[in-house]
Amino acid sequence: MDPIRTLVVDDEPLARRRIAQLLADQPGFAIVGECGTGAEAVAALSHGPAVDLVFLDVQMPDFNGLQVLQQLPAQPLPLVVFVTAYDQYTLQAFEAHAVDYLLKPLHPDRFTRCLTHVRQRVSQVAAPAWEGLVQALPAPPVAFSTQLLVKQPGRFYFVPVEQVHYLEATGNYVTVHVPGATHQLRATLTQLARQLDPARFLRIHRSLIVNTTHIKELRPWTHGEYLLTLHDGTHLTSARSCNEGIQQFLRQFVS
């Protein structure tokens, strides 16, 4: 029997290495590629060599595992084993359509049982239909940052996001405003916006993101803008280009 051609997709090199090590102890599997991003996985599965099995990380910086599958052409998929560090997803839905669902850290005995399921499915030639898999899987929730890492000469420390009043783009940095202090992060505001929960952080200007829990008052201002007053007395002015997001934020309070 030909070896089961396997693709390993995970943004963490150590996680990919761990899967490779566990597969090396099992006969009948051959790793044909590794991907560190969702985009690489889409390219490999769409245009690369044929693959029988994919170990697919649920959470990655660009696409999550489900989004990877959604971007593939409508064709029979390889068998899929989802791998994640989070256990809050609807496991039953994943297990009903994927071969298995593994939690990190990966344990050898559990991994061996997973490969038993894979061999059974390969022998049955029963890879799941692509459309049924995508429709049945719930979109996994995004894991947003709970802390921001501040780097200073000789030390690193963390700022809980609930303490952040607002973030302001300043040149090549973002200034993080917290009670009685400011911190600078070498990043763009767009990069930080991807890490922050949009249910709590609202972009009001191309250079401003505000923590909505610290908004005391919001009133229409000149030229279609809004004036926001925070609980500490800080005043921020929005841009008209962000009005749709602000109005959507306000609608949640209207019954």
TrEMBL record:
Q: What is this protein called?
A: Response regulator transcription factor
Q: Which InterPro entries match?
A: CheY-like_superfamily (IPR011006), LytR-like (IPR046947), LytTR_DNA-bd_dom (IPR007492), Sig_transdc_resp-reg_receiver (IPR001789)
Classification via SUPFAM superfamilies: CheY-like
Give all residue intervals belonging to the HTH LytTR-type domain. 148-252
Q: Which SMART domains match?
A: LytTR, REC
Chain positions found as 4-aspartylphosphate? D57
Q: Where is the Response regulatory domain?
A: 5-119
Task: Specify one Pfam family.
Answer: Response_reg
Q: Which UniProt keywords apply?
A: Phosphoprotein
Origin species, per record, is Hymenobacter negativus
Q: Which PROSITE patterns match?
A: HTH_LYTTR, RESPONSE_REGULATORY
